[in-house]
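Hey, I'm writing a tutorial for new members on how sequence and structure tokens pair up, and I'd like a real worked example in the thread rather than a made-up one. If someone can provide the structure for the chain below, I'll link this post from the tutorial.
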Amino acid sequence: MANLKNFRQFFLMYPDRLDVIRYPAGSELSMIEKRYLTGSESLQGFSPLLSWSHYRALMRVQDAEAHAFYEQEIVDCGWNKAQLERQIQSSSAQ
């Protein structure tokens, strides 16, 4: 039941990206280019560098700007789930 709840929350949080899901194959993964967001621009699609665990942690971040920041930092800095959660906790404690 918990997974179903997570899937529903994921669907509700990313409705604008669901139509661009694609699965990169082998060599395409090495050609992923970093993309920096500006202003109100949002990511298109989902990064293959983020795991389901990353997205589950990100779904707890309600502020859109903070959410976009963390998502970009995961890609840029190579954060694993534990590092992401540590960053989220440290900024919410301030």
